[in-house]
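User: Before I run my own analysis I want an independent prediction to cross-check against. Here's the chain; please return only the structure tokens and, at the end, one sentence I can use as a sanity check.
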Amino acid sequence: MALTPSNTFTTGTKAPDFTLLDSVCEQLKSLQDLKGEKGTVIMFICNHCPFVIHVNEQLVQLAKDYQEQGISFIAISSNDVDNYPADAPDKMKEQAKILGYPFPYLYDESQEVAKAYDAACTPDFYVFDQDLKSTYHGQLDSSRPGNGEPADGKNMREALEALLNNSEPIENQRPSIGCGIKWK
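Assistant: Structure tokens:
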């Protein structure tokens, strides 16, 4: 598996708008429908990537910890399902139910949303403030499959705490690393 780092996404950049199919409820959902009162986390993930599988439990815990504080979580899969059928919407729905995702899991069939965010890998994390301006784009934490470090969401938690405390965005924003998005 080739390691792909996330691309640069400048702090203060406005979140590109979108409307995508929620694979769980099978309805179209927009960023405006889903954004949080105090902030929004957008995660590009998929079903089959070992880096996502490694952090899934922590993604669920993070959402549970921060949704009550006005932070919305949105997961998006943009992978080419013709070549990666494990990432198809029916499989996404199944995965979300098995793992108990407390957030929508949207399907970006055209891959236009991933391109608008310049997403490069799974997982790829973006944090936006209440005005949908970027405050963080980086790794969840330093844990990777097989490196022995716990998946504790340390970096994401620091970014969310800074946002909730109206502090400056954290300076050390290390890129996420994972599987490259499977482009058509």
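Sanity check: The first strand starts at residue 4 and ends at 5.
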